[in-house]
Structures are given as C-alpha cells and as structure tokens.
Q: What sequence folds into this?
C-alpha cells in the first residue's frame, strides 16, 4: 500500500498542491515521530544492549584467543618434553649397550683369567704329583734296599755260619747296592 501511494504521488508531482496532498495521504507527523522513536530506540539499544553484547563477544573472543595461545604453549611444551624423553631414552639405550659391552669384556677377561689359573693349578698339581711319585719311588727303593739288606745279612750269616757285625754287613751291602745302582 505504501508503494502505491508513492506511485500516485509521483504522477501528481507537477501539481502545485503536491505537498498538501502528500501530507493528506501520508501523515508526515507520524513519520517524524516514528523516526524519532526508532532513533531513540536504536540509541538505547546501542547503549544498553549492543555495547554489553559486544563486550561479552569481545571477552569471549579474548578468552578463545587466550585458550588458543595456552594450547599452543602446551603443545610446544609437550613437544619439548617429548624431545627430552626421546633424548633420555636414546641415552639410556646407549648406556645399556655400554654396560652390556663392558660386562661382555669383563666376562672375557674373567674367562681368560680362570683358564690361566686352571692351567697354572693343573701344572702345579702335576709338579706335586711328580714330586710325590718321585718321593714314593725313593721310599719304595729305600724299603726294597732295607729288605734286601736284611735278607742279604740273613743269607750271608747262614752261608758263613758266623755272624758278622751288623754295621759291617750293612756297609758292605750298601756298597754293593750302590755299585749295582751305578751299573744300570
């Protein structure tokens, strides 16, 4: 309807009572009052609604920006901690490998020492056994000589029928045994 009024008014522009007709058809006072109330309403909305609403929006935007910044800092810190953990893990692996290598070297050294000690002990035991055998051999030879001397004295006293002093007999037999030992 409002558009129809303007179309009709446009046709009557050449008419001298145009403004009077326009005022009759469109109430200019109502328009001015409506525009005034609309302007006042807009100013009040700007002051009491739009300002606080924009303040809340600004606070919300600032809060979101702070949270994004905080998340970025946390991510950077997490990345840093992750790198530190990776470095520590690599260091621990290297230390573990060094410990294993050191233990292997010590095991080789101990094995060599044990083998050397065992060979030394075997050599020592061999020498002791050789000395013990020689000692037992000497004891056996001395025992056989003693028996031989006793038997020789007994046989000589029966053959001769008289008794020779035991010291003379012993010296004579030992001399004979010594000569027999050299003859081998």
A:
């Amino acid at each position: 309807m409002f558009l129809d009024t303007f179309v009709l008014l446009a046709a009557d522009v050449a008419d001298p009572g145009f403004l009077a007709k326009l005022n009759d058809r469109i109430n200019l006072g109502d328009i001015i009052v409506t525009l005034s109330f609309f302007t006042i309403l807009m100013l009040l909305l700007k002051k009491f609604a739009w300002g606080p609403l924009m303040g809340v929006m600004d606070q919300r935007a600032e809060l979101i920006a702070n949270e994004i910044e905080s998340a970025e800092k946390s991510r950077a810190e997490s990345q840093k901690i992750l790198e530190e953990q990776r470095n520590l893990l690599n260091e621990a692996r290297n230390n573990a490998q060094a410990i294993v290598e050191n233990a292997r070297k010590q095991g080789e050294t101990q094995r060599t020492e044990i083998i050397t000690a065992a060979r030394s002990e075997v050599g020592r035991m061999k020498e002791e056994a050789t000395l013990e055998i020689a000692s037992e051999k000497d004891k056996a030879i001395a025992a056989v000589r003693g028996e031989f001397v006793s038997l020789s004295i007994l046989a000589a006293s029966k053959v001769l029928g008289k008794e020779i002093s035991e010291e003379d007999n012993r010296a004579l037999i030992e001399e004979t045994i010594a000569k027999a030992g050299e003859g081998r």
